[in-house]
Design a protein that fits this description.
Blueprint (H helix, E strand, L loop, with lengths): L13 E5 L2 H4 L12 H4 L15 H15 L3 E5 L2 H4 L9 H16 L3 E7 L5 H4 L9 H16 L5 E6 L1 H7 L15 H26 L4 E5 L5 E3 L4 H24 L4 H9 L10 H7 L5 E4 L4 E4 L16 E2 L3 E3 L6 E2 L5 E2 L1 H15 L3 E5 L17 H19 L4 E4 L21 E3 L11 E3 L1 H11 L8
Parallel strand pairs: 1-2, 1-14, 2-3, 3-4, 4-5, 6-8, 7-13, 13-14
Antiparallel strand pairs: 8-10, 9-10, 11-12, 15-16
Bound molecules: 6-O-phosphono-beta-D-glucopyranose (BG6).
The site of 6-O-phosphono-beta-D-glucopyranose has 16 residues, from loops.
Length: 470
Amino acid sequence: MLHKSLKPFPEEFLWGASTSAYQVEGANLEDGKGPSCQDVKKVPEGTSELDVCADQYHRYKEDIALMAEMGFKVYRFSISWSRILPKGTGEVNPKGIEYYNNVINECLKYDIIPLVTMFHFDMPAALDERGSWSNPESVDWFLEFAKTMFENYGDRVKYWLTINEQNMLTLVGPVIGTLCIPEGCTNVLKETYQQNHHMLVAQAKAMALCHEMLPEAKIGPAPNIALIYPASNKPEDQLAAQNMNAVRNWLYLDMAVYGKYNNLVWSYLEEHDATPEFHEGDAEALANGHPDFIGFNYYSTGTVEASDGTEEGGGDQQNSRGVAGLAKNIKNPNLMKTEFGWEIDPIGFRATLREVYSRYRLPIVITENGLGAYDKLEEDGSVHDPYRITYLREHIKQMQLAITDGVEMMGYCPWSAIDLISTHEGMKKRYGFIYVDRDEFDLKTLNRFRKDSFFWYKKVIASNGEDLSD
Ligand code: BG6
C-alpha cells in the first residue's frame, strides 16, 4: 500500500530496549542464586561461560542511568527464576527478591516502565533434574514462581511477558541450552510437543493469575515471530509457507489468544503420533488465559519451498533447516545478511506486523529486534556502529508504515540495551547501544561506553520516531 502521508507514532509510544537475566547479569551463583540450565550447560566451543556476562548484577544503577540518558520509556528485562527460588520451588531467596526490587525502583526513579519477562531460557537446574517442562508439575512450578513475582513486584510492575520465544525452545531448544529430552525417549517429537503443551498451559494459567491478582496489570506472550515467504508462486511452495508459518508462528499466538491448537500443526502431530496429552483442566485453562497485548521478537523473515520429506531440522532461531514433511528452508536471494549470517528484512517486519495484527487484533509491542555484529572500541572510547543504525532505522521506518497501515503499536524494544552474551555465539556477537569493555574470555574493565547508535537512538526517542537521521 502506498501512503500519501505517514501516521505518527502514538504519543505514549514505549521506546526502550531489552535484555535477559542469564545473558546480562552475571553473578550467576552469588547471593543465594541457584544454578539455572544455562549455568550447567556446556557452552559452545570458543564462547564465554555465563558467569560474569555484562556484570549487570553489580552495575545495574550505572546501566539504568545510561538507559535514562537515552530517554528510555521502558526497559524490558527478565527475572531469573533461580535467583528468586534457588531450587525452582519452595524456599525464596530474599537477596534475589531485593535485587529485582532495586532494579525496578531504579527504573521508576527515571520514569522508565519495567516490562518484565517471567521466563527467558533459564530453567532452574534443580527443576531440570526433576524433568523440566516434561514433568506435568512444571505448570504448578511456573505458577508458584509467577505468584511470587506478582506478590513482590505487582505493586510496581504493570507490564508482564510470559515465556520468551517458546517457539524457539520447542524448535531449536538444544542450540540455546534448553529442552531436556529424557533418556531413552522413543518419540522425541511427541516429547517435545508435550513439553510445549505444558508451557502453553503454564502461560495461560499465569495470564489468568495475573488478571486475578493484579487487575490493573497487562500481560502478553513473547514468541519469535517471522513471516515465512513461499520461495516461488508454485502452489506447492505456498502450502509449504503456510505449514511453516503454522508450526513456527501461529501455533503459539493462536493458543495464547484463542486457547486453541492450530489445525495444521495438530494434523502434523497426529501424523507422527505426537499429539500432546491433555491433563484434567488443561482445555479450560487454555481457554481462560487471555493476553492484553502481543509481544514478539522479530529479526528476519524465512523462506521455504515444498518439502521433499528429508529435511533434518535444527539450525538456530533464524537459520532453520525446515521441517520434514512440512517445508524446506532456503536462502532468500533478495536479502542482505548480518556478519553472523542472519538475513535482514525490514519490509518483512512491516509484513509480519500487518499479518499478526490482522489475525489477532491486539496491540503489539516489539520485544526484540536488532543486529549482532563485531563492534570495535576505539582508543578515544567511541564505537562506530553505522550498520546497527541502518538496521534499526530501516525497521523503525517500516514500523511507522505498519502503523499507517492500521496496526496498533504500543512500543519498540530492540535487542539489546547493552552488550551481553549471545545465546550460542558468545560475547563477540554484540547487539547493545552500550558497549561493555570485555572480550570473549578476557574480562578487562567491564566499563561501559556509548556507541554511535546510543546517541542516534536518543534522538529517535526524543523526537518520538520523527528524526531518524544520522
Ligand atoms: C532471541 C533471544 O532469540 O534472540 C535472545 O530471545 C537472543 O535471548 C537474541 O540473544 C539474539 O540471538 P543470539 O543467538 O544472536 O544471541
